[in-house]
Amino acid sequence: MSADFDLETRASADDHQALRLWLRLLSCTTRVEDQIRQRLRQEFGTTLPRFDLLAQLERHPDGLTMRELSERLMVTGGNVTGITDQLEAEGLVLRETRPEDRRSFIVRLTPAGRRQFKRMAATHEGWIVELFAGWTPAQKTQVHELLAQLKMHLKDNT
Amino acid sequence: MSADFDLETRASADDHQALRLWLRLLSCTTRVEDQIRQRLRQEFGTTLPRFDLLAQLERHPDGLTMRELSERLMVTGGNVTGITDQLEAEGLVLRETRPEDRRSFIVRLTPAGRRQFKRMAATHEGWIVELFAGWTPAQKTQVHELLAQLKMHLKDNT
Question: Domain named HTH marR-type: which ranges (chains A, B) (predicted)?
Answer without folding.
Answer: 18-152
